[in-house]
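look at this one:
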Amino acid sequence: MIEFPLGSEMFGIWNWADAAIRIVIVVLVMTIVAMYLIYGERKIVARFQQRLGPTRTGPAGLLQSFADAVKLISKEDIRPDGADRWVFEFAPYATFIPVFMTLCVLPFAADWGVRNLPLGMFFVFAVLGLNIVGVMMAGLGSGNKFALIGGVRAAAQMISYEIPLVLSLLSVSMIAGTLDLNEFAAKQGDYPFVILQPLAFIIFVTAMLSELHRAPFDIPVAESEIVGGYFVEYSGIRWSMFMLTEYAALWSFSVFGGIVFLGGWNFPMGNEWGWGWQLALTFIKSALFIFFIFWVRSTVPRLRIDQLMTFCWKILLPLSLVQVVANGFILVYDGPYWLLSLTSGVGAILLIAIIINRAFRRRTATTSLVGAYRGAQVSAQ
C-alpha cells in the first residue's frame, strides 16, 4: 500500500492501481497542456509579428485547439501506396511513448509524480534516445524521399546534440552528487545550479532547442526545403500525434530544465510554503523556458545543416568536455564553489562571444551578397 501524493489516508491503494491513476492524470494534463501550448505559441508569435492570432473560436480564441483536435480526429487517415504499412502506422506511437515516459518520472512538487526513480536523470535520457527510432520509422516508412531526408537529418541532429546535452547535465550531476531528480531540486534550496554552471545551462538550452527541432534548429521539418519533414505524408489523427509529441516534449524539457538548473519546486521557499507554492514554482519556471523557445522561433533565422553540425562538434562539444574536466579537478581537490561559478562563467562568456561573432559574420556575408546582387541588377539595366 502506498499513499497518493496528497498524503490522505483515503487514497491508500494497491501499487498497480495507484500507478494507473497517476498515469491517467499525467495523460490528461499533458493533452490539455499541449493544446494550450499550441494556442499560446500562436498568440505569442502573432504578437511578435504584429498579428492577432486565434480570436474567433471561443472567448479570445481559447477553444481553437479543441476545434483543431476535433477536425484532425474526423479527417481521413491516408496512407501512401508506397509506404511500409506497419512501419508507417506505428511510427507516431514510437515517437510519442518515449516522451510520455519521461513525464512519468518528473517531480512537479516534492514527491509529486508517477514514480520517483533513484536514477531519474539517467532514465530520462535513456528513454528520449528511443525517440530517434520513431523519427526514422516515419521517414523510412513513408516511401517519400523528402520524408526520408527529414528523418535522416533529424537522426543526425539528435544524435549529435545529445552528446553535449548529456555532458552539460553530467557537469551539474557532479556537483549535486545524485541522479535523483527529486534530490536535485531538494539540494537547490539556497541557490539554483545555474549560478554554479552557467555554461552548462547555455549548452543545455541550445541542445534542447535542437532536440525539439525548434528554430533555429528546425532543419528536419523545414517546409521551405523538404515540404514538412519526416511526417509530411501523415494526416488526420496520426499527424496530430506528432504535434502532441512535439508539444509534450516541449513541456517535458521545460519542466526538466527547471528542476535541474533553476531549483525546480524548491527554490525559492519551496520547502517552507508547501505543495501549492511548489506547483506554482514548477509552472512559472517551465513557462519561462517555453516563452524563451517561442521568442527564439520568432527572431532567429534557420541555420544551414553544415552550420548546425559545425556548431555542435566544433563549439558545444569541446566546451562541454572542458566544463566536465574543470568540475572534476575542482571537486576532487575540494575547491570552493565560487571557483565552479568562475570557470563556468568564463566558458559561458566565451560561448556567447563565439555566437555573436558568427552571427555578425553571417549578417555581413548576407549583406555583401545582397549588395552584389543589387549591383549586378543595376549594371544589367
